[in-house]
Amino acid sequence: MLKYTLRRVLAMIPMLFLISIIVFSLAKLMPGDSLGGEIDPANTDPEYIEQMREKLGYNDPIYEQYFRWITNFVQGDFGKSTRYKIPANEIIMERLPNTIFLSLTSLIITYVLALAMGIYSGRKPYTLGDNTIAAANYIGLALPSFVAGVFAIYIFSFHLGWFPSNGSVDISVTEGTFEYWLSRFHHVLLPAFVLGLLNTASYTQFLRNDIIENSRKDYVRTARAKGTSESKIYNVHIFRNSVIPLVTFLGFDIVNLVGGAIITETIFTYPGIGQLFLTSVTNRDYSVLMTLTMMFSLLTLVGNLVADILYGIVDPRIRLD
Amino acid sequence: MEIMTDKNSAVNIKPPKSMSPWAIARRKFIRNKLAMISLCFLVFVCIVSFLAPYITTHDITRINMGSFSLEPSSEHWLGTDKNGRDVFTRLLYGGRISLFIGLACTAFVIVTGTIIGSIAGYFGGTIDNLLMRFTDFVLTFPFLVFVIVLNAILQNKVSGVWVLIMVISGLSWGGVARIVRSKILAEKENEYVLAAISIGCSPFKVIIKHLLPNVLSTIIVQATILFASMIVAETGLSFLGFGVPSETPSWGNMLSFANEPDVLQDKPWIWIPPALAVTLTILSINFIGEGLKDALNPKSYR
């Protein structure tokens, strides 16, 4: 298992190298360059612009520019954000905790809801409760996250006034106090719920079907024949077997959260890296844009790796190498 | 003696013709009420959207000075938006664009995925290795991130919805290619394939005439799932402002008005219709997909 993991991690390096070439070419293909975002072309002397271009190396051959970028990049120098006038890693680090907080909350919401609903549905299939949950799941699967977000703001923020509709924290509270954390939690709850909605529906459905399938197996019949109580059969015997496949979804969660964060953070104007990515595309803030794209690609690679490794761990019959 | 007569009569009566797998599937699908209602709804939405110019007479492009943000009335069934354009008319035209993009992307993805998957699965060896490594590579791109970046690059150079269609389909054929490859790999071990090769069928003919029809049910189910996710992709991107150009009405573009707090709070007639249209369309496609999966699965008896 360790050998396999190491091999996969090493295989990620050429993959990341290829992705870096593509990210760099895409950034070069985008209209305008980062100098255009920094200065006002109407008020600046064209000669000065040309001098600056020469000084910043924009006139060098493209491969030299690439090598300069990638050498700096692997050394942790991601360049300077033209919009925020600070190094790109600083602005990303400032936003990253917000996104991690949002993602973790949404994961907790997803798994708690999916476990509760899935276990109930699996234990009492084809009843009124199960059908209600199934209907809710169908709607949850069909509701795109941005529609869900818009409806959530309309109902819970504007009409009921339970949750704030934007931001990550109240401006009036001081950092570090109990109120500060309470306010952050209050702000994150609605976007996290919207972000977790889609996965909740599919995980519930998965868990339900798995529990029903397991309840027909021989080991359950044996347990019943021994006189094990029904609740112990479901909560111990079946639950253990059904919850394991659910763990493997964790890898895909990492992949899904990348796309989900971009949409959800935009709707709720939540200052995380997803929103930062969109503003960097609009403002042609290249260093931030390239760093974030590389980061998202790395996350996708890691997510797929985690999924594969978890498969091997929970089901030893799958031979990985 | 009785047994004899029985046998004779059995010979005389023509045995009832057994149904083809497609006929069985069709009958199963028609019996599935939810799927049939969804299919009717989807067909209705498609017809209404594609016949939009014949149904409404309002002008979608002209900005009407006198009628900004009007509430629903008998003249404007769903009211007007902030530029004074009729919401109902835009909803129909928007459906046209959104459904068209969804269909076009699905077609491209299915065709590309099937071609690459079947070539990789049939020939195997080096070709398979090369094609699948390429597929893996495309699959590692975070979809939304690269669609946004690519669309931002191309939108200024080429105009119209085709950019979006190409970008979305170019990044999402990987999954279909993998599924088709694995199905072809399993199917080509059958003896009828060996028979076809030994009587001199070209690889092209074996794939088209013998292998693909047996993989078709999987492809059809995949296509319905894809259709739904492609519509979500288009509306989501347009909602974020990185999809269809903003002057073209699409469900996503109409929904993006909800980004303005006063529209979201006080003028729900502007954003609720496209939101409902998207959700109901996806819901009906999902039900059709479930119905098809059930109908095409020979193991399910209903």
Automatic annotation (TrEMBL), chain B:
Membrane protein topology class: Multi-pass membrane protein
Chief subcellular location: membrane
Any single Pfam family the record assigns to this protein: BPD_transp_1
Any one of the GO BP annotations: transmembrane transport
TM spans (from-to): 34-55, 97-122, 134-154, 160-180, 211-233, 269-289
Subcellular location: Cell membrane
Keyword Transport appears in the UniProt entry: yes
Domain of life: Bacteria
Keywords: Cell membrane, Membrane, Transmembrane, Transmembrane helix, Transport
GO cellular component: plasma membrane
Domain ABC transmembrane type-1: 95-289
Recorded family membership: Belongs to the binding-protein-dependent transport system permease family.
Name of the protein described by the UniProt record: ABC transmembrane type-1 domain-containing protein
